[in-house]
Amino acid sequence: MLFNVKYVIYKDYGYTLNYELLYDLYSPIIGSEAVNLYINLYHESTKQAKMPGISSYLKDLNDLCNHSSAVFTELRAKLEAIGLLQTYLQESNDQLERTYHFVIKQPLSFSKFIDNQKFRFLLIKSIGQLNYEKLEYMYMPSRVPADSTNVSSTFEIVFDDNDLSNVKTFNFDKLYENIAKNTSTVIVINNECKSIIESYHQNYNLSESEIEHIIYGCIVENNGTYEVDHDLLSVKFHEYINSAKNVSVFSNIKLHRNVAMFVKNLSSEQMQVIFNEYKNLNSEQYLSAIYKAPLSAEEIETIETLRKTYKLSDYVINLLVDFTIFKTNGKLNRTYICKIAKTINGLNLNRLTDIYNFFRFNNQDINKLNSKSPETFKQEALDWENI
């Protein structure tokens, strides 16, 4: 019986309701009715906050939403399954009083939403691949005019604190704790090893368990002390990142790619990070990390064509992939990327910086690019120092 069932709604401080994310990402999967229930719960939480001490009954909420008890339970389950709602039940000792505690959660950002492979699959299944690609394009970072210069301050400039230089983003305390659970031996991880771990953690979004597993293969004995060998650690990380061409783990790599690089100047530090990713991942891994899914047979064949027919290195292919996806609204167009490959081969461009500068200063239709001579291009190109 709902007459004696109460409810309380909670939301985090600073919560804001993002209608675009709800209707773009969640509604196609769970339906508009479930989304409307979520919105009603949000507004009811505001009312409850202004009426402390006044009981709210679940029957009244169902009447307000024009739902039966069964429909409410069904819609609530969908919100819980997709991560928008958590439900807790409190019962009195005599089980005569029941209170539901509803915790409404904020929608995930687009990037975090599609990081969940099951959410991404259901979204594509609901709206189709073409509409999904349109969403990807729409949620890309905003493009500013090409002749604008980035004059934003950096974190390091504003927070000029020498102590911050020693702060790591990776939680080494938790790593030591996990190692201690599996071995009684004290393992020493020196600062050089910590820097290597920090770099791979930031650039490839490796999980704690992946990093811990790699560390176990790098422990050596030195005068009775067990420590992680930094040279062996570098080798093991590199082997792990490049061990397979098309496996699901690379779908979770956090890339630093930035479409703005083709329309405006980025800092040399930003370009260095992006170019390092081009060099450290083979092309199957890189494209899989972009789409966050295993590659199709056609995509694998396209990469092989660029390697074998056009004789391109993987780091060059990765740059071409980024530029092609930028120009074709999120899709790898085989005809288009092969045309670009033919163009850069014709201009004898081999270095990443030369090819990037070519794209940066000729961000137009590829047919127009073919009319520009290598000599003209070299005069316009930026002089990146051996990136």
Task: Describe, in plain words, how this protein is organized in 3D.
The chain is built from 20 helices and six strands. It has 387 residues and is mainly alpha-helical. Strands 1-3-2 form a three-stranded mixed β-sheet. Strands 4-6-5 form a three-stranded mixed β-sheet. Helix 1 (19-30) crosses helix 2 (32-50) and helix 6 (117-127) packs across helix 7. The longest helix is centred in the N-terminal third of the chain and has 19 residues, at 32-50. The relative contact order is 0.07.
Order of strands, widest sheet: 1-3-2
What is the CA-atom radius of gyration, in angstroms? 26 Å
Runs in which pLDDT lies below 50 for 5 or more consecutive residues are 244-249, 364-387
Describe the largest sheet.
3 strands, mixed
Return the average pLDDT rounded to an integer: 82
Query: What letter string, H or E per element, gives the SSE order?
Result: EHHHHEEHHHHHEHHEEHHHHHHHHH
The count of strands amounts to 6
Tell me the fraction of residues in β-strands, as a range.
Answer: 5-15%
Oligomer: single chain
Describe the SSE topology.
Blueprint: E1 5-11, H1 19-30, H2 32-50, H3 58-65, H4 69-81, E2 85-91, E3 98-104, H5 110-115, H6 117-127, H7 129-138, H8 155-158, H9 172-182, E4 187-188, H10 191-204, H11 208-216, E5 219-222, E6 225-228, H12 230-241, H13 268-280, H14 283-291, H15 297-308, H16 314-327, H17 334-346, H18 352-361, H19 366-369, H20 374-380
Parallel strand pairs: 1-3, 4-6
Antiparallel strand pairs: 2-3, 5-6
